[in-house]
Structures are given as structure tokens and as C-alpha cells.
Amino acid sequence: MDILCAREEEILGFDARRILDARLAPLLQERDVARRLLATMNNGTEMSGLDLSVQDSRGEERRIVYSSRKIEQGTFAGMWVLCMRDVTDRRPANEGLLSSNRQLLVLNQIMGVSASSLSLDELLEASLSKTLDLLGFDLGLTYLLNPERTIALTRYHRGVPENYLARNRAIKVHHWPWNFVFVAGQPRYLDLQGEGGTIEEEILASLGISTLACIPILAESVVVGALFLGSRKAEGFRDEERRLLEAIGQEIGSGVLRSMLHKRLEAAHRETNLYLDVMTHDIKNAENVANLYCDLLLDILEGDAAQYARKLKGSIRKSSGILQNVSTIRRIHQEPPDVKPVHLGRVIRAGIERTPEAAISFDGTTAEVWADDLLPEVFTNLIGNAVKFGGPDAGIAIRVEDCLEEDHAVVVTVEDTGPGIPDEMKETIFDRFRHGRSRGCGEGLGLYIVGMLVERYGGRIWVEDRVESRPDLGASFKFTLREVVHGEAGEYEE
């Protein structure tokens, strides 16, 4: 293997006679590399990426990467061309890059655990296990502060001796050295390199380890707990390891904050529902009593006084409608649709009967549609909207027809002879708190509920002019519902 390279002499500082000895030494130590080299030479194939650690003339280690190619033709046929690269200066950078990539991989997996955990307990347990598995620590604990912030309580642990847990399941955070972590919010690294007989040495001995990292868990810059990670290896923590552990503590803290905010949101949601339940119940009772007195007044009053009583009764009815709308919206958001075959004609006739003062025409239908017990609210709101804006003299017509654009669907039309809807409002009429007509007023919830319910049943809704291009002659509300096909009942899956 008498192959020489002038560049190699320059880098290593040897003359040609000692170059081969410098190469031979690592080959004798790295047998697998030597076998690879010999196999390449015997087979006559090219070689690349032979990485050897070679000592130069000063006794310093140089990392050389060799590659070679056999000359097939010409005067030098059968000889080998040897190329070499000195990568000594690149190795620290490469090793640093590999270390950074590894740290990013670990941190990314911890972030995945933090983001996917549904509860605080699940987050702490999974984060501790993942950190121990990825970084090779021998034991770990997670502590959380009590509400008074005086004691840290063990939530999860792995590999911790029972005698340590018996004495330190709850620790006082204002005592040294824990106050450094739980009060000051600073990481603390313990090892056996200091003087003997210290509190730190006693802690390490009770855990049976040589090094311990105590990392605060911060949520919005507030300490909420700590992550303890211990190793039996004698080496201390390098700077990059410390940065990684502190980043893990911050990420777990972000997860803890999300969990805390989620719990607060759930509590606020329950409290809001409680207030709504109490208010709805009490207001309904008050409305029932007020309605009773209004009926009594209407029986005994005449003239203007009776008219005032009728207006009062109308206001009470409006208040009842608002409560009903709020209850319907709550059900839409809280309850998943439990659709089943519903006889559409019966629902429409029941809605007509609830509004005896209105003149409503309906020819009937035998269609069954997929809906739930909230479907009557669609007709209650559409009929009520027509009566409110069209007045008692407005004509209302309801039709059910086959949908020409969709299979197994019907189009329901509710139209009136009221003031109609301007063209610029037709696209936004079903938005929340959008008033629906050119005159009058309302809370804007009725049509919003209609739109949500039609969407809930898989349909679509829109509004047109009753007479084309004449919005002043009334509005025509149209929406689709999926029709039950014979033999399909019981096979539907939402």
C-alpha cells in the first residue's frame, strides 16, 4: 500500500518514509476500517469516506478523511490515486451541530407531549417519562406548589428510593436549597465535586445519585413547580445540557399554564350555565305571574287602559321569546344533533296552531326529514318574524317541494306579504344580531337560530324576494332539509 500524498506530508509534518507508519497505527487499532480498506483494494473498487485519526509530528491528533481511485489506463495503470481531507477543525462544529439537533429533537418531543396532554396529571406524568427516556437520567420527580405557595407536593416520580419519598413527598419551599428553585425561580445543579458534609451531598446520597438537576416549572414567569432529574454518572452538567433542561422546564410550564387556563375556562363555563339556569327559571316564573295579572286586567279594563295592558302582555311575550331563543342556542352548542325521521307536515301544522292570530296557508306534505326536536324552532321563528314585521294583516304561505338541485332533499318556503328585505341585507340576514327588515326592531336572534338549525341538519338557507326584483312586496325564506328515503330510517349516521 505504497501510496504517498504531498499534501499529507504538509499536514502531518512527516517525511515520506514516516507517512505510512502514521497511517498504519490507526489501522491496527481500527480493525473494521482496515478490513474495509483491504477489501476495497482487493476488489479494485473506489474508496471514499475512510475516516482515520492520525497523530502528526507534534503528537496532536488530526482527523483525516481518505478517498482513492484506481488508474485503469496509461503509464500508471494499476496504481491508485489517493485524496485526503483534513477535517480536524470541522469536527467540533459538526459535533456541536449534532448535539444541537439532538437537543432540538428532545425538546420537540417534549413539546408534542405538552401540546397533546388533556389534563395536568397526564402532562406531568408523560413529560417526566419522556425526559427520562430521551436523556437517560436514572430518576426523576415532578413537584407542584400548593395554593398557598408554601409547600411543594410530589405529583409523579420514577426510580426514586422509597426512603427519600417518605421524608420528601412534601418539601417546604422556603428552606435551603429548595428556596433557590421554588422561590427565586432559578435552576439548581447539585454534584459531588464540592466539599463533603453539605446539605447538597446529603440530598444526593439519599437519592443514590451523583448529580441532580432541579429545574423550576414556570407559568407566565410564576413558579408553579419543579422538575428534578438525577443521574448516577459522576460528570456534572455541561452548558448545553443545562440550556436544554431549562428549555424543557419552560415548555412543561407552558403546558401547565394551558391546563390551568383550561380548568378555569371549564369552571367559568359551569358558573355561566348555573347563572343562566337560575335566571331563566326565575324570570319564567315572574313572567307567568305577570301574564296572569295581564289577563285579569284585560278582563276588567276597557279603552286606553286595556290597550296598555295588551302592550304589556306583548312585551312579556317578547321577553319569553328571548329566553326561549337563549335556551335554544345553548342546546345547539351543547348537545350534538340526534337526528331521526321527523314528519315535516305535523311540525309545520303545530307551528301554525301556536300563532292563531296569523293568516297562514299550507297545503300539507307527507315528507319525512332528518331532524331532531329543535326543528319546530325553525318555523316558530320564521312565522314569528313574518307576523312581527308584516303585522296581523300580512299573508303567510308555507310550501314543501322536491329539491331539483339535490337528491333526497326537499325545499321548504316560508313567504309573506310584509315589507320585505333589501338586497344589501340578504347575504347577512342570518348573522347574529342582524335586524331582518327595513322597519321594526328585534333582538336579532331568531333568524340566527334558524340558520344554525338548518346547518345542523345538513341543509342550506337563503332569502329571496316573494316577487322577483320587488323586495317591497314581501320576503321568501327558503331552506333545504334531507328527506328520509324509504328503507333508510335507522341507517343514518351523523
CATH topology name of the largest domain, in short, is: Beta-Lactamase
Number of helices in the DSSP assignment:
13
Give the rounded overall mean pLDDT: 82
| Percent helix | 40-55%
Instruction: Specify the structural class.
Output: alpha+beta
The total beta strand count reads 16
Provide the CATH superfamily of the largest domain: GAF domain
CATH architecture of the largest domain: 2-Layer Sandwich
Radius of gyration: 40 Å
Name the strands of the widest sheet in spatial order: 6-5-4-9-8-7
Low-confidence stretches: 438-442, 490-494
Order of helices and strands: HHHEEEHHEEHEHEHEEHHEHEEHEEHEE
The fraction of residues in strands falls at: 15-25%
* Sheet having the most strands: 6 strands, antiparallel
End-to-end CA span:
76 Å
Number of domains: 4
The CATH class designation of the largest domain is Alpha Beta
Global geometry: elongated
GO molecular function: protein histidine kinase activity
Keywords: Kinase, Transferase, Two-component regulatory system
Catalytic activity: ATP + protein L-histidine = ADP + protein N-phospho-L-histidine
Enzyme class: transferase
